[in-house]
Amino acid sequence: MPVVxxxxxxxKAETRLVRVVRDGDVHHIKDVxxxxxxxxxxxxxHLTGDNAAVLPTDTQKNTVYAFARKHGxxxxxxxxxxxxxxxxxxxxxxxxxxxxxxxxxxxRIPGASGAEGGRHSFVRSGGETRTCVVHHDxxxxxxxxxxxxxxxxxxxxxxxxxxxxxxxxxxxxxxGDRVLATEVSARWRHLPGVSPYGxxxxxxxxxxxxxxxETYSLSLQxxxxxMGERVLNTRKEVCEVRLAMPNKHHFLVDLTPFGLDNPxxxxxxxxxxYGLIEGSVLRDDTPDARFxxx
Length: 294
Description:
Elements: E1 15-23, E2 26-40, H1 43-47, H2 57-71, H3 76-90, E3 94-104, E4 106-108, E5 122-124, E6 129-137, E7 142-155, E8 180-190, H4 197-214, H5 220-234, E9 238-247, E10 250-252, E11 267-269, E12 275-282
Antiparallel strand pairs: 1-2, 2-3, 3-6, 4-5, 6-7, 7-8, 8-9, 9-12, 10-11
Helix pairs in contact: 4-5
């Protein structure tokens, strides 16, 4: 039976980069992890071991550091586009570049004088991680997907769950008032020509949090849709939102063995197993770009 080479790519994963911008005695931190993956005329290296078409992964790593010095790192989407276009435009054998970046936030530590924000001292933020994935083709097409992950949110009321299917294995009781908590992973695809990405990120995040807080939830699925819908109705540069939201269950503890009542005050926060709700919300005229999510 004939054997052929299927889709393939190669690159450098998890290049850690921290850039310090010194504005006099006030410093600014940019902390990111960069991954690159290239594809194109790579048949020979797989079939015969001929490396003539291969830009080494070590070179890709070095490019990240050199570009950080030459161009700086402002919005991660812009930095990813810069890298992706460079790999494709500078190497005739590279037809497609994928660059993924995660950004980690730092908060300033107040100075000894008590002033707001230390000049060069930081504490790692306990909030979410910002993400982006950029695809760039030799034909000049660039697709940008921004996102965030590890955004933990909770509503202590305003959520219920009832009317679900019950069979012989169902033990879950319907509830009219429950804690709804989740860890949001969201990605959103931009229409071409978006700028600035920083403002877009801040506003999409605001939409996600606002919809979560303001939606009376009958299910986490309903909340997911409301969050995506809010983004699309508010941000015209976004054409599709994909969300993954685990249900971080909070179970009411039975305190009757101790002679105590429990009027929705004491909960056991279970970390596993958990329900996992995933879905996409998109405009009905959104062009297909399945590869953009890969």
